[in-house]
Design a protein that fits this description.
Elements (H helix, E strand, L loop, with lengths): L2 H6 L3 H8 L1 H18 L18 H12 L7 E6 L8 H15 L4 E6 H4 L11 E8 L3 H15 L1 E3 L2 E6 L1 H35 L2 H25 L9 H29 L4 H28 L7 H32 L30 H6 L1 H12 L1 H16 L7 E2 L11 H12 L8 E6 L4 H12 L4 E10 L2 E8 L6 H12 L5 E6 H35 L3 H13 L1 H12 L4 H4 L7 E2 L2 H31 L2 H30 L5 H33 L8 H10 L31 H4 L5
Length: 762
């Protein structure tokens, strides 16, 4: 049965999508308009924290201290600069006391204290020119941000004889949130026009180029509406908006490239528009569905972690992936039904041509001749060369990727702090002044909460034993209130360094006559690392098992899913190596404009793995599905690999380049973690598309030969019942001993028709 005849047998889904294309688009426009309204202001409702484990001992201690000893957990610091007069000048003292009283009278602010009240050395700069007023803003992150916005302008700037700057954790989070939203808008303004230009180059048609952009916008706006709803139920990180933009545009481009190219191919073969849409949905549509499921599973795995920072990316990622796929499988076919052959109109590249282009196989090639495709083209020649020297390419490529990943062996995990902000940000300037000019690094200590009550002698005994620990610089306290007390323990060295993290364990192991729990920056980091280590095997297991199952359902092979997972993981080594070499070790920090902290925020590698693995599998599904379709048709293993790379090489490269542009635009952020996320994933997708898919996959598939398609009989029967493939035809498996060139069960037909079927590409 010919492709055209099969295309006329449009199934229920195709009939549903194509029956009322105008109505489908109208409904989509209405829903999108509602999403704009529903998602408005979503960024203002998001938080900029979420790195802590809500069930951890440190989180319990933090909440208990906030309840029982509000002054022990200041999150707002007013840095009072007295200049040459010094903080003990009478006029400065009088003004500082007025500021302290005004701050204590503000609604939502508790636990106000200052150097001028306590004369505590830790609240006075060593040079005597600056001192601190400390307080705590209560409420959720959103409520605290609103309070800060109301309070900060009243205190910031010149106040009589002093100059006041606003800092503290709540100011750092609020400024980070504002900067991320500004940077995201700038990234969108960069990425959208550049993406449109690249799409015109890829499709050779302004009409076709607008389709993926429209799908991406629908997915982004829809996801913002979903996130706005989720913020009513739970906390969502503002960083998730970056993933929404990147995946919304990136996956829309991926799916639209695959569907539009297949549609144009069917038209070029003479199919009617409705038949072409039906065949496209039955083939490329299935691949898009499987691809979306694999990406969604990778992102959904972050749901197993307790930190809402990671869970937020799962919320955003699942929503944007499913919405992008839905738009590609519903709206795009409706648009193609209305456009028909006009999808090829407005070839803007002609404006820059001096002569008629030579048929080619590059990223920007349009309609190609059957002769060029039949001869293999650039991607076909690459696949042929790689398979001819398969052992060399496999070993060299794998070795190179492993070497690029070696710096990750020296990774050090830390926590995000004020150094994530650009150097001129007020909250960072305040924290840097405190860090460098105040004794004992205020706010950098560990707090030990004591519960159950004890005698003064028991408290004193505990304090003396803690002070004797080798990693302790000083112990302050106890501060007692009823059956509760707390000690402040200052560690030697950095507040979140290895010594401080080791001290957390020592404090928790130290016996006491009362119940103890430890909090502070280092304690939160230790608990966060433990939570991730505890849940990571489950997350990886979910990704691997579900991915293996999905790829098996698509291919019916046992080996291909294993290859896909292994090669995908290998493609991420360059990203992880670069993250450590650049962001931890500080190489290129001047060029990229960030401050290296000497460590990597604990949750970032998990996030980057899930996102990059999903995107890499996205490209892998595109390539594997086309190889599988051709293998089912021809039964020739090597020909199918060459054919698959020839037909998808340019498409995958184009999609990767466009997604990399979007991620690099996000990587221009002034917040270090966002910069790391954008640039790291951009590197991962480029390496996957241009190295792994182009070199390693064909080399490995050549080496595995006929075993590539093997499956035991029970699994083969399972696949025959439940599996699908991109091709609309039945697998070309002969029961009379027919074999392909590789010895596997093959088609009765030869591959002589490949040239006629291989006319159009992106």
């Amino acid at each position: 049965m010919s492709e055209v005849n099969r295309g006329s047998r449009i199934g229920g889904w195709s009939r549903f999508v194509t029956a009322r294309p105008r109505l489908s688009l109208l409904v989509a426009m209405v829903i999108t308009a509602l999403a704009v309204v529903a998602g408005s202001g979503v960024g203002d409702r998001m938080g900029s924290g979420g790195w802590e484990d809500p069930a951890a001992s440190s989180t319990y201690a933090t909440r208990a201290l906030e309840r029982e000893f509000p002054a022990s957990q200041p999150n707002l610091l007013l840095l009072v600069d007295a200049g040459a007069k010094g903080v003990d000048d009478p006029a400065v003292t009088a003004e500082a006391e007025r500021l302290t009283e005004r701050l204590a009278a503000e609604e939502g602010v508790i636990g106000v204290g200052s150097y001028w009240q306590t004369r505590a050395p830790a609240l006075r700069a060593e040079d005597g020119g600056e001192a601190l007023i400390a307080a705590r803003i209560v409420g959720t992150e959103k409520e605290a941000g609103e309070t800060l916005e109301r309070v900060a302008p009243e205190f910031r700037g010149a106040q009589g004889p002093v100059e006041v700057s606003v800092g503290g954790p709540v100011a750092v989070r609020h400024e980070m949130q504002a900067i991320i939203q500004e940077d995201l808008l700038r990234a969108e303004l960069i990425a959208l026009p550049v993406t449109l230009v690249l799409l015109v180059m890829v499709f050779g048609s302004a009409i076709a180029a607008l389709l993926p952009l429209g799908i991406g916008i629908v997915a982004i706006l829809g996801t913002n509406a979903v996130l706005r709803g989720i913020t009513e139920i739970t906390d969502v990180s503002v960083f998730a908006q970056n993933l929404t933009t990147a995946l919304g545009l990136g996956l829309a481009v991926d799916y639209a490239l695959f569907i539009v190219r297949r549609f144009r191919e069917e038209l070029a073969e003479g199919a009617q528009v409705r038949d072409a849409v039906g065949t496209t949905l039955r083939t490329a549509g299935r691949t898009v569905l499987f691809s979306a499921l694999t990406v969604a599973v990778s992102l959904a795995a972050m749901m197993v972690f307790p930190q809402y920072f990671l869970r937020s990316f799962a919320y955003a990622g699942i929503a944007v992936v499913l919405l992008a796929a839905a738009a590609a499988l519903i709206l795009l076919p409706a648009a193609l039904m209305l456009l028909g052959h006009r999808v090829n109109f407005l070839d803007l590249r002609r404006l820059f041509r001096r002569k008629k282009p030579t048929p080619g196989d590059g990223i920007a090639s349009g309609v190609r001749s059957a002769e060029t495709e039949g001869s293999g083209g650039g991607w076909g020649r690459t696949a042929t060369l790689v398979m001819r020297r398969a052992p060399l390419f496999a070993v060299a490529t794998a070795t190179g990727l492993v070497l690029l990943g070696l710096p990750f062996l020296g990774v050090k995990f830390g926590t995000a702090d004020h150094r994530q902000l650009p150097s001129g940000a007020e909250a960072r300037v305040v924290q840097e002044d405190i860090r460098g000019g105040f004794p004992g690094s205020p706010g950098g200590g560990l707090e030990v909460l004591g519960e159950g009550g004890a005698t003064p002698a028991e408290y004193a005994d505990y304090r003396d034993r803690v002070a004797a620990l080798p990693d302790v610089e000083r112990v302050d306290g106890p501060v007692v209130s009823g059956d509760h007390a707390y000690f402040t323990v200052l560690p030697r060295g950095e507040a979140v360094g290895q010594d401080a993290q080791r001290l957390v364990g020592e404090l928790r192991a130290e016996p006491a006559a009362f119940d103890t729990s430890v909090t502070g920056t280092a304690a939160v980091l230790v608990d966060s690392k433990d939570a991730i280590a505890d849940r990571l095997p489950l997350a990886v297991g979910i990704i691997v098992v579900v991915t293996l199952l999905l790829i098996f359902l698509l291919t019916g092979s046992v080996l291909i899913p294993i290859q896909a997972v292994a090669l995908n993981a290998l493609s991420l080594t360059a990203m992880f190596g670069a993250v450590v070499w650049v962001f931890q070790d500080g190489n290129l920090s001047g060029l990229l404009g960030f401050t290296s902290t000497g460590d990597i925020e604990t949750t970032l590698p998990v996030l980057m793995f899930c996102v990059a693995f999903g995107l890499s599998m996205d490209y892998g599904v595109f390539l594997i599905s086309r190889i599988k379709e051709e293998y089912d048709r021809s039964g020739d293993h090597e020909h199918a690999v060459v054919f698959g790379l020839r037909r998808t090489g340019g498409l995958i490269t184009a999609a990767a380049v466009i997604l990399a542009v979007v991620m690099v635009a996000i990587g221009t952020s002034r917040v270090t973690n966002t910069k790391m996320l954008g640039l790291g994933i951009a590197l991962a997708v480029v390496m996957d598309a241009m190295v792994v898919r182009s070199l390693l996959v064909p080399a490995v598939m050549k080496l595995t030969g006929k075993a590539t398609w093997w499956a035991p009989r029970p699994l083969r029967r399972f696949h025959e019942r439940f599996g699908v493939s991109e091709g609309g035809s039945h697998p070309a498996v002969g029961t009379n001993g027919g074999k392909g060139a590789d010895g596997a069960n093959g088609a009765d037909g030869a591959v002589s028709g490949a040239g006629e079927r291989d006319k159009v590409g992106v």
